Amino acid sequence: MTDLVFQRCINPDCRATTSVEDTTFRCGICGSLRDVAYDWDRLPLPRSLRDFEAKWSQRTDPLCFSGVWRFRELLPFAPSEMILTIGEGQTILQRADAVAAFVGLKAGQLFLQYEGMNPSGSFKDNGMTAAFSHARMVGARRAACASTGNTSASLAVFCSATNLMKAIIFIGSGKISYGKLAQGLDHGALTVQLAGDFDDAMQRVQQVAKQLGIYLVNSINPFRLEGQKTVMYRVLEALRWEPPDWIVVPGGNLGNVSAFGKAFLELADLGLLKKLPRLAVINAAGANTFYQLYEQFGLRWNEGRPDQTLISRYYGGLDAEGMRASTIASAIEINRPVNLTKALRALDRCGGVVREASDQEILDAKAKVGAGGLGCEPASAASVAGAKKLRQEGIIAADERVVCILTGHQLKDPTATVAYHSGDAKTFEDVLASRGVRRANFANRPIQVSNDLEQIIQAIEVYS
Ligand SMILES: *Cc1c(COP(=O)(O)O)cnc(C)c1O
Ligand SMILES: [Zn+2]
């Protein structure tokens, strides 16, 4: 009899399984990524997704309050007493008509899933509560990650809030926004600033974790992705279980899109969801590996056998040219997405597309999101910029229902926002023009006045 929960290699020619306690996260035989897998036939499941609404009346139970764990029947890998929750996932799906007009959608058809409301200010908390609970199950004392800032902030929050593990975070030097760096420092994480970028830090942290036996919480960790599945459950819930036509998400390490795909495929296989939404992943143009591989070179899941030669040739080319990821959207400034194959699998079954958005397009979209009432960081706005592009191409129709994921909070990266809006020439030059941003098309400039009542009053009358 197999275990109820186990881990399984995603390579169909291998499918090697290992126990739920294994923390190596890559197949020991073929090196592929692993899934958390369940023997659903022997697990209790809801009869319909609507059954989850019963949890709303049990909100004094932390596991029913959590936006992740109230769906725990769909990620049943941890015994209840091992679960660590800090109230993550209290996020909202907001109808955004002003942004819909910008994107080119009919009123009522665009929704923003605001993951910036999580305790550490990004969607990463959905995955961290799951990985952290798994770390506790296996008795880990130290947990590490490489990060462009949000994974490290989330890990630091969970470690400090629970006092169960020491956080060790690897960041590329000069590659992290102040908001995110501040969180890691304030929450007491051991912060390793590496002379290199995220891709370097990612490589090193895997070596270090292996050598020192430290628990790794990057999204190569399949338990992270189990937690991130719940973002989609909450979107469905907010739409009263009526799936939208499109989910649009920024792509960095491609953990989110992989998790979203897994969520939908499982629901479909379990007979809990009739129609699957289509998935659109948006890269920043300065970190567009996935866009190039998928849209330009035609890389596909190919029943679990993606063209490995194409992938290695692509990365060889990046190395040969000394290409480094570069975008104002630092959370997706990644050239070697660790979840590449899982993302291909997700797009395969969900009619996926990939697009790229320039820093100009990202910041203009971000200003529109802000003016529409929700504050996000640059990477998040890639979803809105990408939706606009897909609408212009006619891939998304004007009357389709679209959900863009706002992955992180506005205050994560105030530097980019102020540089865009302030009109200060030097800041604009330093932060934005150097990245090819030519104009702040939707800038909300502060007005300069002297300390003179009459002038102040006059200025306000003119501008308001
Ligand atoms: C981590 C992150 C992303 C990228 O998500 P992946 O799952 O790595 O593709 C996008 N936006 C924000 C704000 C993030 O923190
Ligand atoms: Zn394998």
Q: What can you see in these coordinates?
A:
- This protein is of the alpha/beta class and 464 residues long.
- Helices cover 39% and strands 14% of the residues.
- It has helices spanning 62-65, 97-103, 124-137, 150-162, 178-186, 198-212, 222-238, 255-269, 289-296, 308-320, 340-349, 359-371, 378-392, 414-422, 425-432, 453-463; strands at 5-9, 17-19, 34-38, 92-95, 110-114, 142-147, 166-172, 190-194, 215-216, 246-250, 278-284, 353-357, 402-406.
- A 6-stranded mixed sheet has the order 4-5-13-10-11-12, with helices on both faces. It has a 4-stranded parallel sheet with strand order 8-7-6-9, with helices on both faces. A 3-stranded antiparallel sheet has the order 2-1-3.
- The longest helix is centred in the middle third of the chain and has 17 residues, at 222-238.
- The model has no long low-confidence stretch (mean pLDDT 96).
- Bound molecules: pyridoxal-5'-phosphate and zinc ion.
Task: Summarize the entry for a quick read.
The chain is an alpha/beta fold. It has helices at 62-65, 97-103, 124-137, 150-162, 178-186, 198-212, 222-238, 255-269, 289-296, 308-320, 340-349, 359-371, 378-392, 414-422, 425-432, 453-463, and strands at residues 5-9, 17-19, 34-38, 92-95, 110-114, 142-147, 166-172, 190-194, 215-216, 246-250, 278-284, 353-357, 402-406. The chain binds pyridoxal-5'-phosphate and zinc ion.
